[in-house]
Amino acid sequence: PAVETPAAEPGVLFSARAAEQVVLVSQIKDYLEHGDPASAPLALVLVDIDGLRKLNEAHGMATGDVVLRAVKQFLTTGLRDTDTLTQLNGDCFALTLRKADLDHAVQGAERVRNAIGLCKLRVNENKIHFTISSGLAEAGPGDDGEVLYLRCNLALQAAKAAGRNCTFYHD
Q1: Which of 141, 140, 167, 148 is nearest to 156 (CA)?
Q2: Would you tell me how many other CB atoms lie within 10 Å of the CB of residue 98?
Q3: By three-state DSSP, how is residue 46 classified?
Q4: Which end of the chain is less congested by CB atoms within 10 angstroms, N or C?
Q5: Are 103 and 136 in contact (CB under 8 A)?
Q6: Could you give the CA distance from residue 143 to residue 139 in angstroms, rounded to a whole number?
Q7: Strands 120-123 and 126-129, how do they pair?
Q8: Contact indicator for 155, 138 with CB cutoff of 8 Å
Q9: DSSP H helical ranges for the chain
Q10: How far, in Å, CA of 7 to CA of 129, rounded?
């Protein structure tokens, strides 16, 4: 499902962002300034592991680490040379998909989400089931790194608010 952008005060979103987000936004900005979005679109996908904190509390941090590694493995499978994966914080990843439009990005995000949803990891004596939520956006005319990240994050928040284990996009 699509999400709309509410009016936002410039600079407010990133007042307390992590260093990884700063680098990601800078890389997106460079690509958008030096690339040709018409012939080489750029899509951003934010992926959040649903309920990782609760999983850590119930089964321990070592189990959470196994889940993080598994999600990272799912996300890196099928990446092209032009794509990048960035871990933004404990349970959130960003996929920067160069030369990928929104349709391509949504299809890929849904493939990964569905595959993860079928996965059950055995950790010690426990079978661990986990899911992800994804938010996507394709760079549009006039977008810079911060605007694209904001649009993508709004889509991710909408996916989480809709009950998790789903993919939303911002067009």
Answers
A1: 167
A2: 16
A3: strand
A4: N
A5: no
A6: 6
A7: antiparallel
A8: no
A9: 19-34, 52-59, 61-76, 102-118, 145-161
A10: 37
Residue 64 CA neighbour count, 13 Å, CB half: 16
Contacts of 50 (CB under 8 A, 6+ apart): 130, 131, 132, 133, 160, 164, 165
Closest to 50 in 3D by CA, of 149, 139, 148, 165: 165
Q: Please state the φ and ψ torsions of residue 33, each to the nearest 5 degrees.
A: -75, -30
pTM: predicted TM-score of the whole model, two decimal places: 0.86
* 134-152 pLDDT, tens digit each: 999 999 888 889 999 999 9
What digits encode the pLDDT tens for the residues 29-81? Answer: 888 887 665 567 899 999 999 999 999 999 999 999 999 999 999 999 988 89
- What count of other Cβ atoms lies within 10 Å of the Cβ of residue 1? 10
Contacts of 110 (CB under 8 A, 6+ apart): 167
CA 170 to chain centre: 13
> Using N-to-C axis directions, what is the helix angle for 145-161 and 19-34, rounded to 10°?
120
Q: Pick from 133, 138, 162: which is nearest to 149 by CA?
A: 138
